[in-house]
Protein backbone atom coordinates (compact mmCIF):
# COMPACT_ATOMS: atom_id res chain seq x y z
CA UNK A 1 0.00 0.00 0.00
CA UNK A 2 1.33 3.45 -0.94
CA UNK A 3 0.59 6.89 0.42
CA UNK A 4 1.76 9.50 -2.03
CA UNK A 5 2.09 12.89 -0.37
CA UNK A 6 1.97 15.50 -3.11
CA UNK A 7 3.01 19.01 -2.10
CA UNK A 8 2.95 21.17 -5.23
CA UNK A 9 3.86 24.86 -5.12
CA UNK A 10 0.75 26.97 -4.77
CA UNK A 11 1.94 29.26 -7.53
CA UNK A 12 2.06 26.51 -10.16
CA UNK A 13 -1.73 26.60 -10.24
CA UNK A 14 -2.90 29.91 -11.68
CA UNK A 15 -6.52 29.22 -10.68
CA UNK A 16 -5.82 28.64 -6.99
CA UNK A 17 -5.99 31.13 -4.15
CA UNK A 18 -2.74 31.50 -2.23
CA UNK A 19 -4.38 31.14 1.18
CA UNK A 20 -6.18 27.96 0.10
CA UNK A 21 -3.03 26.54 -1.54
CA UNK A 22 -0.93 27.30 1.54
CA UNK A 23 -3.41 25.52 3.82
CA UNK A 24 -3.78 22.53 1.47
CA UNK A 25 -0.29 22.04 0.06
CA UNK A 26 1.75 22.87 3.15
CA UNK A 27 -0.37 22.12 6.20
CA UNK A 28 -2.13 19.33 4.30
CA UNK A 29 1.18 17.55 3.69
CA UNK A 30 1.95 17.74 7.41
CA UNK A 31 -1.40 16.16 8.26
CA UNK A 32 -0.92 13.33 5.75
CA UNK A 33 2.57 12.70 7.11
CA UNK A 34 1.18 12.49 10.65
CA UNK A 35 -1.42 10.00 9.40
CA UNK A 36 1.20 7.93 7.53
CA UNK A 37 3.29 7.53 10.70
CA UNK A 38 0.37 5.62 12.22
CA UNK A 39 0.18 3.15 9.30
CA UNK A 40 2.17 0.04 10.22
CA UNK A 41 2.18 -1.47 6.70
CA UNK A 42 3.13 1.61 4.74
CA UNK A 43 5.78 1.04 2.04
CA UNK A 44 6.51 4.47 0.65
CA UNK A 45 5.80 8.17 1.00
CA UNK A 46 6.40 10.31 -2.07
CA UNK A 47 6.57 14.01 -1.23
CA UNK A 48 6.87 16.69 -3.89
CA UNK A 49 8.03 20.15 -2.91
CA UNK A 50 9.57 23.16 -4.69
CA UNK A 51 13.01 24.67 -5.23
CA UNK A 52 12.21 27.23 -2.52
CA UNK A 53 12.71 24.63 0.23
CA UNK A 54 16.42 25.43 0.06
CA UNK A 55 15.86 28.96 1.34
CA UNK A 56 18.35 31.56 0.16
CA UNK A 57 21.46 29.39 0.13
CA UNK A 58 23.93 29.70 -2.73
CA UNK A 59 26.41 27.31 -4.32
CA UNK A 60 25.59 23.71 -5.19
CA UNK A 61 22.50 22.42 -3.38
CA UNK A 62 22.98 18.70 -2.82
CA UNK A 63 20.29 16.03 -2.75
CA UNK A 64 20.12 15.50 0.99
CA UNK A 65 17.21 15.67 3.43
CA UNK A 66 16.57 18.17 6.18
CA UNK A 67 16.52 16.80 9.70
CA UNK A 68 14.22 17.55 12.60
CA UNK A 69 14.96 20.99 14.00
CA UNK A 70 17.00 22.11 10.98
CA UNK A 71 15.80 25.36 9.40
CA UNK A 72 16.65 27.17 6.18
CA UNK A 73 18.06 30.36 7.64
CA UNK A 74 19.94 29.00 10.66
CA UNK A 75 17.34 30.20 13.17
CA UNK A 76 14.43 28.56 14.94
CA UNK A 77 11.93 30.64 12.97
CA UNK A 78 10.42 28.87 9.98
CA UNK A 79 9.62 30.74 6.77
CA UNK A 80 6.15 29.20 6.74
CA UNK A 81 5.32 31.24 9.84
CA UNK A 82 5.96 34.46 7.95
CA UNK A 83 3.89 33.21 4.99
CA UNK A 84 0.92 32.33 7.19
CA UNK A 85 1.15 35.73 8.89
CA UNK A 86 1.23 37.46 5.50
CA UNK A 87 -1.94 35.67 4.39
CA UNK A 88 -3.75 36.32 7.68
CA UNK A 89 -2.91 40.04 7.59
CA UNK A 90 -4.09 40.35 3.99
CA UNK A 91 -7.36 38.52 4.72
CA UNK A 92 -8.00 40.69 7.80
CA UNK A 93 -7.38 43.81 5.73
CA UNK A 94 -9.85 42.64 3.08
CA UNK A 95 -12.50 41.87 5.71
CA UNK A 96 -12.10 45.36 7.19
CA UNK A 97 -12.57 46.80 3.71
CA UNK A 98 -15.74 44.67 3.27
CA UNK A 99 -14.32 43.09 0.12
CA UNK A 100 -16.64 40.61 -1.57
CA UNK A 101 -15.70 36.99 -2.25
CA UNK A 102 -14.78 37.66 -5.87
CA UNK A 103 -12.35 40.42 -4.87
CA UNK A 104 -10.81 38.23 -2.16
CA UNK A 105 -10.30 35.42 -4.68
CA UNK A 106 -8.60 37.70 -7.22
CA UNK A 107 -6.29 39.23 -4.61
CA UNK A 108 -5.34 35.86 -3.12
CA UNK A 109 -4.49 34.53 -6.58
CA UNK A 110 -2.37 37.59 -7.26
CA UNK A 111 -0.60 37.17 -3.93
CA UNK A 112 0.45 33.68 -4.93
CA UNK A 113 1.77 34.85 -8.29
CA UNK A 114 3.69 37.67 -6.59
CA UNK A 115 5.80 35.06 -4.77
CA UNK A 116 7.38 33.78 -8.01
CA UNK A 117 9.36 34.95 -11.01
CA UNK A 118 6.11 34.84 -13.04
CA UNK A 119 5.13 38.16 -11.47
CA UNK A 120 8.15 39.68 -13.22
CA UNK A 121 6.97 38.41 -16.61
CA UNK A 122 3.41 39.66 -16.01
CA UNK A 123 4.53 43.08 -14.75
CA UNK A 124 6.88 43.45 -17.70
CA UNK A 125 4.19 42.55 -20.25
CA UNK A 126 1.72 45.00 -18.68
CA UNK A 127 4.27 47.81 -18.95
CA UNK A 128 4.38 48.25 -15.16
CA UNK A 129 7.95 47.01 -14.74
CA UNK A 130 10.46 49.67 -15.76
CA UNK A 131 13.46 48.27 -13.91
CA UNK A 132 14.51 45.16 -12.02
CA UNK A 133 17.31 44.49 -9.50
CA UNK A 134 18.80 41.27 -10.83
CA UNK A 135 22.06 39.88 -12.13
CA UNK A 136 21.62 39.13 -15.88
CA UNK A 137 23.75 36.00 -15.39
CA UNK A 138 21.53 34.70 -12.57
CA UNK A 139 20.39 31.13 -13.25
CA UNK A 140 16.77 30.21 -12.64
CA UNK A 141 15.98 26.59 -11.95
CA UNK A 142 12.88 26.00 -14.05
CA UNK A 143 11.18 22.75 -15.03
CA UNK A 144 7.87 21.98 -16.81
CA UNK A 145 5.25 20.35 -14.57
CA UNK A 146 4.96 17.45 -17.05
CA UNK A 147 8.53 16.43 -16.25
CA UNK A 148 7.83 16.59 -12.53
CA UNK A 149 4.89 14.21 -12.98
CA UNK A 150 6.98 11.82 -15.10
CA UNK A 151 9.71 11.80 -12.45
CA UNK A 152 7.18 11.02 -9.73
CA UNK A 153 5.88 8.03 -11.70
CA UNK A 154 9.38 6.72 -12.39
CA UNK A 155 10.42 7.14 -8.74
CA UNK A 156 7.48 4.99 -7.65
CA UNK A 157 8.23 2.33 -10.27
CA UNK A 158 11.95 2.06 -9.53
CA UNK A 159 11.56 2.10 -5.73
CA UNK A 160 8.38 0.02 -5.54
CA UNK A 161 10.05 -3.05 -4.03
CA UNK A 162 12.55 -1.25 -1.82
CA UNK A 163 11.64 -0.61 1.80
CA UNK A 164 12.84 2.82 2.92
CA UNK A 165 13.65 3.70 6.50
CA UNK A 166 14.31 7.10 8.04
CA UNK A 167 18.01 6.55 7.32
CA UNK A 168 17.46 5.75 3.64
CA UNK A 169 15.46 8.76 2.46
CA UNK A 170 16.03 9.46 -1.23
CA UNK A 171 15.97 13.03 -2.50
CA UNK A 172 15.57 13.68 -6.24
CA UNK A 173 16.15 17.17 -7.60
CA UNK A 174 14.09 17.73 -10.74
CA UNK A 175 15.55 20.89 -12.20
CA UNK A 176 17.50 22.45 -15.04
CA UNK A 177 20.27 24.50 -13.45
CA UNK A 178 22.97 21.83 -13.88
CA UNK A 179 22.08 20.19 -17.20
CA UNK A 180 20.23 22.89 -19.12
CA UNK A 181 20.50 26.25 -17.30
CA UNK A 182 18.52 29.34 -18.29
CA UNK A 183 19.73 32.80 -17.28
CA UNK A 184 17.65 35.86 -16.48
CA UNK A 185 19.09 37.54 -19.59
CA UNK A 186 17.47 34.75 -21.65
CA UNK A 187 14.17 35.10 -19.80
CA UNK A 188 14.29 38.86 -20.39
CA UNK A 189 15.00 38.41 -24.10
CA UNK A 190 12.24 35.83 -24.59
CA UNK A 191 9.71 37.97 -22.70
CA UNK A 192 10.61 41.02 -24.78
CA UNK A 193 10.25 38.98 -27.96
CA UNK A 194 6.82 37.63 -26.97
CA UNK A 195 5.25 40.90 -25.79
CA UNK A 196 6.66 42.82 -28.76
CA UNK A 197 4.87 40.46 -31.16
CA UNK A 198 1.86 39.85 -28.87
CA UNK A 199 1.33 43.06 -26.87
CA UNK A 200 -0.82 42.97 -23.77
CA UNK A 201 -4.24 44.60 -24.31
CA UNK A 202 -5.30 46.75 -21.37
CA UNK A 203 -8.84 47.31 -20.07
CA UNK A 204 -9.31 50.18 -22.51
CA UNK A 205 -8.53 47.95 -25.47
CA UNK A 206 -5.15 49.54 -26.13
CA UNK A 207 -2.00 47.56 -26.87
CA UNK A 208 0.76 48.14 -24.30
CA UNK A 209 4.07 49.02 -25.93
CA UNK A 210 7.02 47.77 -23.88
CA UNK A 211 10.68 48.73 -23.85
CA UNK A 212 13.64 46.58 -22.89
CA UNK A 213 13.65 48.28 -19.50
CA UNK A 214 16.51 48.86 -17.07
CA UNK A 215 18.33 45.94 -15.43
CA UNK A 216 20.12 46.97 -12.23
CA UNK A 217 22.78 44.51 -11.10
CA UNK A 218 22.45 45.11 -7.34
CA UNK A 219 19.85 45.98 -4.72
CA UNK A 220 21.83 49.12 -3.81
CA UNK A 221 21.61 50.37 -7.40
CA UNK A 222 17.87 49.72 -7.38
CA UNK A 223 17.43 51.72 -4.17
CA UNK A 224 19.34 54.66 -5.69
CA UNK A 225 17.20 54.41 -8.83
CA UNK A 226 14.00 54.44 -6.75
CA UNK A 227 15.23 57.43 -4.71
CA UNK A 228 16.04 59.51 -7.79
CA UNK A 229 13.16 58.37 -10.01
CA UNK A 230 10.30 58.21 -7.49
CA UNK A 231 11.03 59.17 -3.87
CA UNK A 232 12.64 62.58 -4.42
CA UNK A 233 9.96 63.75 -6.91
CA UNK A 234 7.31 62.53 -4.46
CA UNK A 235 8.85 64.59 -1.65
CA UNK A 236 8.86 67.63 -3.95
CA UNK A 237 5.20 67.03 -4.79
CA UNK A 238 4.27 66.78 -1.10
CA UNK A 239 6.13 70.02 -0.37
CA UNK A 240 4.31 71.80 -3.21
CA UNK A 241 1.02 70.36 -1.94
CA UNK A 242 1.58 71.86 1.52
CA UNK A 243 2.55 75.25 0.03
CA UNK A 244 -0.61 75.38 -2.10
CA UNK A 245 -2.97 74.44 0.74
CA UNK A 246 -3.38 70.75 -0.14
CA UNK A 247 -4.37 71.50 -3.71
CA UNK A 248 -2.58 68.36 -4.92
CA UNK A 249 -3.71 66.11 -2.09
CA UNK A 250 -5.28 63.38 -4.25
CA UNK A 251 -2.30 63.31 -6.59
CA UNK A 252 0.02 62.89 -3.58
CA UNK A 253 -2.08 60.08 -2.13
CA UNK A 254 -2.18 58.18 -5.44
CA UNK A 255 1.54 58.68 -6.11
CA UNK A 256 2.43 57.63 -2.57
CA UNK A 257 0.27 54.51 -2.85
CA UNK A 258 1.75 53.49 -6.21
CA UNK A 259 5.33 54.04 -5.01
CA UNK A 260 4.79 52.03 -1.82
CA UNK A 261 3.05 49.26 -3.76
CA UNK A 262 5.92 49.08 -6.25
CA UNK A 263 8.53 48.98 -3.47
CA UNK A 264 6.61 46.27 -1.60
CA UNK A 265 6.37 44.19 -4.75
CA UNK A 266 10.09 44.56 -5.45
CA UNK A 267 10.87 43.53 -1.86
CA UNK A 268 8.74 40.40 -2.24
CA UNK A 269 10.56 39.21 -5.37
CA UNK A 270 14.04 40.36 -4.30
CA UNK A 271 14.92 36.99 -2.64
CA UNK A 272 14.16 35.26 -5.95
CA UNK A 273 15.97 37.77 -8.17
CA UNK A 274 19.04 37.95 -5.91
CA UNK A 275 19.89 34.25 -6.18
CA UNK A 276 22.87 34.55 -8.51
CA UNK A 277 25.06 31.56 -7.73
CA UNK A 278 23.26 28.33 -6.94
CA UNK A 279 22.70 25.10 -8.77
CA UNK A 280 20.71 22.03 -7.80
CA UNK A 281 22.78 18.86 -8.04
CA UNK A 282 20.71 16.09 -9.62
CA UNK A 283 23.02 13.08 -9.32
CA UNK A 284 20.30 10.89 -7.81
CA UNK A 285 17.87 11.91 -10.53
CA UNK A 286 20.44 11.12 -13.23
CA UNK A 287 20.95 7.66 -11.70
CA UNK A 288 17.18 7.24 -11.84
CA UNK A 289 17.20 8.19 -15.54
CA UNK A 290 19.93 5.60 -16.19
CA UNK A 291 17.91 2.89 -14.44
CA UNK A 292 14.87 3.79 -16.50
CA UNK A 293 16.87 3.64 -19.74
CA UNK A 294 18.46 0.30 -18.83
CA UNK A 295 15.12 -1.23 -17.88
CA UNK A 296 13.40 -0.09 -21.07
CA UNK A 297 10.73 1.81 -19.14
CA UNK A 298 11.63 5.12 -20.79
CA UNK A 299 9.16 4.40 -23.60
CA UNK A 300 6.35 4.36 -21.01
CA UNK A 301 7.09 7.87 -19.81
CA UNK A 302 4.75 10.67 -20.87
CA UNK A 303 7.37 13.05 -22.26
CA UNK A 304 10.54 11.97 -20.47
CA UNK A 305 12.23 13.85 -17.66
CA UNK A 306 15.64 14.85 -18.96
CA UNK A 307 15.91 18.69 -18.93
CA UNK A 308 18.47 18.56 -21.74
CA UNK A 309 15.63 18.09 -24.21
CA UNK A 310 14.02 21.45 -23.30
CA UNK A 311 14.26 24.24 -25.85
CA UNK A 312 13.87 27.20 -23.50
CA UNK A 313 13.09 29.74 -26.22
CA UNK A 314 10.28 27.60 -27.58
CA UNK A 315 8.98 26.70 -24.12
CA UNK A 316 8.93 30.26 -22.72
CA UNK A 317 7.57 31.97 -25.84
CA UNK A 318 5.09 29.37 -27.06
CA UNK A 319 3.97 27.63 -23.86
CA UNK A 320 4.76 29.36 -20.57
CA UNK A 321 3.97 33.02 -21.31
CA UNK A 322 0.78 32.28 -23.32
CA UNK A 323 -0.46 30.22 -20.36
CA UNK A 324 0.36 33.06 -17.97
CA UNK A 325 -1.49 35.55 -20.17
CA UNK A 326 -4.53 33.28 -20.41
CA UNK A 327 -4.85 32.22 -16.78
CA UNK A 328 -2.98 34.70 -14.59
CA UNK A 329 -3.45 38.18 -16.01
CA UNK A 330 -6.71 39.93 -15.15
CA UNK A 331 -7.96 43.43 -15.94
UniProtKB/TrEMBL annotation:
Transport in keyword set: no
The keyword Oxidoreductase is assigned to this record: yes
Enzyme class of the recorded protein, top EC level: oxidoreductase
Annotated catalysed reactions: a long-chain fatty acyl-CoA + 2 NADPH + 2 H(+) = a long-chain primary fatty alcohol + 2 NADP(+) + CoA
EC number: 1.2.1.84
InterPro entries in UniProt: FAR (IPR026055), FAR_NAD-bd (IPR013120), NAD(P)-bd_dom_sf (IPR036291)
Short name of one Pfam family: NAD_binding_4
GO BP: long-chain fatty-acyl-CoA metabolic process; suberin biosynthetic process
Entries under Gene3D superfamilies matching the protein: NAD(P)-binding Rossmann-like Domain
Coiled-coil stretches: 77-104
SUPFAM superfamilies per UniProt: NAD(P)-binding Rossmann-fold domains (SSF51735)
Keywords assigned by UniProt, alphabetized: Coiled coil, Lipid biosynthesis, Lipid metabolism, NADP, Oxidoreductase
Top-rank taxon, per record: Eukaryota
Gene Ontology MF annotations: alcohol-forming long-chain fatty acyl-CoA reductase activity; alcohol-forming very long-chain fatty acyl-CoA reductase activity
Ranges of residues in domain Thioester reductase (TE): 5-89
Entry-linked PANTHER family: ACYL-COA REDUCTASE-LIKE PROTEIN, PUTATIVE-RELATED, MALE STERILITY PROTEIN 2-RELATED
Role played: Catalyzes the reduction of fatty acyl-CoA to fatty alcohols.
Record family assignment: Belongs to the fatty acyl-CoA reductase family.
Record protein name field: Fatty acyl-CoA reductase
The species this protein was found in: Acer yangbiense
Taxonomic path: Eukaryota, Viridiplantae, Streptophyta, Embryophyta, Tracheophyta
Amino acid sequence: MYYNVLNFAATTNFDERYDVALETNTMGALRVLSFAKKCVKINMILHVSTAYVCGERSGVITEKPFYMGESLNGTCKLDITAEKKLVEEKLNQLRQENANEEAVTFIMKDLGIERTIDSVIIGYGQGKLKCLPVNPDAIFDLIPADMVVDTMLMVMVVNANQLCSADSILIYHVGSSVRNPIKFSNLHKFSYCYFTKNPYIDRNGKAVQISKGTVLTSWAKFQRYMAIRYLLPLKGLKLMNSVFCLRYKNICINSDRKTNSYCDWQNSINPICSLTARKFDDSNTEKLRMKIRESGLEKDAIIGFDPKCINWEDYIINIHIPRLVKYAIKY
